[in-house]
Design the sequence.
């Protein structure tokens, strides 16, 4: 096997890429972009909220200055009724001026006693609880320790600011998360699309198409798997080809000795008239073996074919089916079976030779398995979206449970009393596949017997739908 040239190796490396790295960079890139966007949005919201807090702090400072310069009543209490009345106060700072353990001046919401009676440090923070509510207190004492200022704020005010900030961020964060999910889903779907395409290519494989799946432009992670599957497909194709060649060769080689054996038996039958009955049974067995060989040869010829290589031609279906009935008229008369034809299709695109083999097999089965005084009818007409050819009878029929196995190779219905090799319907099934038709089984005439249906795609109807 020739070694690949350096140019071919470079081309293969250029075409290959890592699905893992592409997925990683896609997710990281998408997350980074959305993270930057979310950071910008949160910075914008935090900036606005910070401005609001500082603006409120300025307001509170003005209130405190006003409190420090306003005339007080005999209690030294600032009358806040007219200061910021009706305005929501986010910061809401309260203060006390304490001299010798007494509050000499305070805001209206501050308690009459010091927030912290004995604060050991010159200045600092401390958390306390007043009437079941937590406060954050800052204390600063003058250098001469003559007085101290205690400024307090409820923790609830801080929580209110935090809740307001959370409310402002909730909707943008949820929207960004949803956007991240959609972007990740889209990007991941695009990245793993080669996996789906490869899986679809593998599901399309059949015994008619076992060609290797191309590995060009495939991710490096998939190439070993695809290569291994291609090896399996090649080995399977080789095995099927060998089986077909063996079947065809064996069947072909058996035809000549079987024909010679039949001639010898026929000659012996003439020479020994007293053994005519045993020799006749032997001839029947030889005829069945010959029929089996012919069917095996037919399957060996049909198996390698596919729909694309099947040659079709437009025929007059009425005339085609009429000739088929005439060729079986003698057999029908001999068995006491009535043949009927009902055709509503003028022309049809089929392979006449193959379709004649399929319909002949179906008609032979119907005539052989139907009792005397039965009716066998060939029907051809339009089915919803399809063209249907059916052969129906009013004979004993077949159990519905066995319908699915009728087209299996070498399967025969027990108890029929007729000889056969179980390949006739397999041949019909294969010919139907080559025509793109579907073989199915159901009830026969008048709710009795067996109906065999060949449903072909209605190409003319499809073309008309496309034109409309």
Sequence:
């Amino acid at each position: 096997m020739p070694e690949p040239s350096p140019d071919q190796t470079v081309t293969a490396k250029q075409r290959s890429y890592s699905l893992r790295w592409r997925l990683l960079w896609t997710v990281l890139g998408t997350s980074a972009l959305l993270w930057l966007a979310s950071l910008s949005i949160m910075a914008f919201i935090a900036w606005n909220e910070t401005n609001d807090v500082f603006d409120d702090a300025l307001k509170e400072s003005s209130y405190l200055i006003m409190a420090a310069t306003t005339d007080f009543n005999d209690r030294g209490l600032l009358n806040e009724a007219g200061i910021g009345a009706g305005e929501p106060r986010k910061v809401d700072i309260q203060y006390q001026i304490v001299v010798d353990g007494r509050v000499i001046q305070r805001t209206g919401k501050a308690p009459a006693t010091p927030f912290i009676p004995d604060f050991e440090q010159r200045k600092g923070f401390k958390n306390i609880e007043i009437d079941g509510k937590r406060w954050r207190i800052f204390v600063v004492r003058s250098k001469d320790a003559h007085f101290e200022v205690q400024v307090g704020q409820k923790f609830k005010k801080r929580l209110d600011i935090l809740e307001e900030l959370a409310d402002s961020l909730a909707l943008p964060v949820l929207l960004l998360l949803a956007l991240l999910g959609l972007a990740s889903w889209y990007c991941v779907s695009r990245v793993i699309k080669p996996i789906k395409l490869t899986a679809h290519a593998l599901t399309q494989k059949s015994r008619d198409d076992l060609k290797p799946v191309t590995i060009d432009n495939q991710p490096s992670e998939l190439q070993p798997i695809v290569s291994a599957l291609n090896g399996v497909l090649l080995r399977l194709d080789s095995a099927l080809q060998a089986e077909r060649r063996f079947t065809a060769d064996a069947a072909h080689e058996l035809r000549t000795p079987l024909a010679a054996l039949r001639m010898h038996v026929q000659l012996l039958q003439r020479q020994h008239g007293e053994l005519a009955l045993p020799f006749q049974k032997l001839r029947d067995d030889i005829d069945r073996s010959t029929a089996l060989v012919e069917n095996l040869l037919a399957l060996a010829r049909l198996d390698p074919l596919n729909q694309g290589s099947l040659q079709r031609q437009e025929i007059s279906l009425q005339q085609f089916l009429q000739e088929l009935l005439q060729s079986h008229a003698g057999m029908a008369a001999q068995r006491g079976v009535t043949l009927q034809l009902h055709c509503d299709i003028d022309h049809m695109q089929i392979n006449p030779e193959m379709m004649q083999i399929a319909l002949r097999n179906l008609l032979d089965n119907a005539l052989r398995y139907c009792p005397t005084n039965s009716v066998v009818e060939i029907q051809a007409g339009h089915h919803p979206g399809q063209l249907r050819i059916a052969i129906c009878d009013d004979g004993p029929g077949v159990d519905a449970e066995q319908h699915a196995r009728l087209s299996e190779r070498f399967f025969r219905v027990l108890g029929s009393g007729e000889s056969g090799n179980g390949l006739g319907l397999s041949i019909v099934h294969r010919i139907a596949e080559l025509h793109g038709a579907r073989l199915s089984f159901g009830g026969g005439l008048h709710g009795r017997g067996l109906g065999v249906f060949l449903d072909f795609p209605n190409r003319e109807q499809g073309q008309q739908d496309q034109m409309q």
Residues 310-467 form a domain with the Heat Shock Protein 90 fold (CATH 3.30.565.10).
